[in-house]
Specification:
Rossmann fold, alpha/beta, two-stranded parallel sheet
């Protein structure tokens, strides 16, 4: 079934991959962007238009736009560097995400998908790592806010993102979490629990219209089980 989907943060690497996958799957996509030049580049995928609405905009502005366009789903894929600018982390990862959630709640859009981070809901996992603590604090606040609300959501929690070809395969949730605790080593090589950006996009498209993913968290770490099977059997 073709859906009408808005992607917030559509010009980042993950957002762009999601837009492309949605387009190929036959959905109608609105890319919500800050930079109109980059937005125009996304129209090449087909069934894609863009709208320039910076994340600094008000909740009411987003809600009005969402309402007018009658979206079936909104995907929040905006993000910033986990290690750097605290202001951007607060503005994008925290306040930007919360504003979009509030707007989606106000309009009662049927489905919301959040791109978060591996084990963001588990303080014991990330708090000892000072360099990523502010980033993960923001992610956890947003995840918990979403879980306690009324929205029909799916939270995707990818491991470190890599630009490699996607295999459409991940670990089942229990294994992904165990693997992340064993191999999330920021001092040496945290890419042991990597996930291709392409597979984050694959997961976003596959949870879009699958009731088994509703109000669930899906960790994303490279594995041997198809994303479809993980959603069907393990969520």
């Amino acid at each position: 079934m073709s859906l009408n989907v808005a992607v917030v943060g559509a010009t980042g690497k993950t957002g762009k991959a999601i837009v492309e996958k949605l387009s190929k799957a036959g959905h109608t996509v609105t890319a919500i962007v800050r930079n109109p030049t980059k937005g125009r580049d996304l129209e090449k995928f087909g069934n894609v238009k863009f709208e320039t609405i910076p994340l600094e905009s008000t909740v009411s502005k987003f809600a009005l736009y969402f309402s007018k366009n009658k979206f079936d789903s909104v995907i929040f894929a905006a993000g910033t560097n986990a290690f750097e600018n605290l202001h951007e982390i607060l503005q994008i990862e925290l306040d930007g995400a919360l504003k979009i959630i509030e707007a989606v709640e106000e309009v009662k859009i049927p489905k919301f998908i959040l791109i978060s981070a591996i084990n963001s809901d588990d303080r014991d996992f990330w708090y000892p790592i000072e360099s990523i603590r502010p980033y993960y604090m923001a992610k956890r606040i947003v995840d918990k806010f979403l879980e306690r609300g009324s929205l029909n959501y799916t939270i995707l929690q990818p491991g470190p993102l890599v630009e490699e070809p996607g295999l459409n395969k991940i670990k089942i949730p229990k294994e992904a979490i165990a693997e992340s605790y064993e191999n999330f080593n920021f001092e040496e090589n945290y890419y042991d629990i990597k996930i291709p950006i392409d597979d984050v996009a694959n997961a976003a498209v596959q949870v879009l219209n699958n009731e088994k993913a509703n109000r669930k968290i899906l960790p994303l770490v490279n594995g041997d089980t198809s994303i479809e099977e993980v959603i069907e059997k393990y969520l």
